[in-house]
Design a protein that fits this description.
The protein is mostly helical. Helices cover 71% and strands 0% of the residues.
């Protein structure tokens, strides 16, 4: 890089990516869902990694439940109730997965539906 290019780079305006709460939530859900999908495709999943992914998923849903239970939450009341219900379901279904009585497909499907909603896509 020559001196002129260095000067242009040094004095160019800094562009900082603006991240919204929605985009941060979408990224987190996407990362956790990808882990669950990857592990569910394995013939014999690495159990400690599966437990860690389920734990992270439950923690995320618990955080969302706490958030929507707050009276100051600006989401519509019905949507808040639906999110809270999904958090409860996720917790119960996660216990079944850990005990080997269910698979992760329901957890993945819920996360994908929420992710589509966050990204403004139609949920089918």
């Amino acid at each position: 890089m020559n001196v002129i290019q260095q000067a242009r780079q040094a004095y160019a305006p800094n562009q900082v990516a603006v991240r919204t709460t929605r985009s941060v939530e979408a990224q987190l859900i996407s990362q956790i869902t990808s882990r669950l999908q990857r592990l569910s495709r394995m013939p014999k999943p690495d159990f400690p990694k599966l437990i860690a992914a389920i734990h992270d998923n439950r923690q995320m849903w618990t955080t969302m439940a706490v958030d929507v239970a707050d009276k100051g939450n600006a989401l519509p009341k019905q949507l808040r109730a639906q999110i809270f219900y999904l958090a409860e379901f996720t917790d119960q279904h996660s216990q079944l997965v850990i005990r080997g009585k269910a698979d992760t497909s329901a957890l993945i499907d819920i996360n994908i539906a929420v992710l589509k909603g966050l990204n403004g896509q139609e949920v089918t």
